[in-house]
Design brief:
By secondary structure, this protein is mainly α. The chain has 2 domains: 1-42; 48-91, no CATH class. It is 79% helix and 0% strand. It has 5 helices and no strands. The radius of gyration is 29 Å and the shape is rod-shaped.
Amino acid sequence: MKLIAETTLKGIAIAMGAGAALIVAVEFQTALETEHAKRPAAVVPDDPLRATLQRCRTLTPEELETDTTCQAAWEENRRRFFGLTSDDQDAE
């Protein structure tokens, strides 16, 4: 009988510890969400390339083949993404 009582008490203690850990995790997550909501949104400066790429995304493949502005914009976007200079690009 004593063995069953000890096992039951250990089970209750483990369950209470798990419950406490769950409560702490929920409170921590709520605090993080509140803190994140208070931060101002990142301000993205107006980038003409971004606006051009947005327009180019709406073109069909046939229109994109003939639109030199879009081709140049995508090339500039690739150059920025890969961190290439114009000298690196000419070497390829």
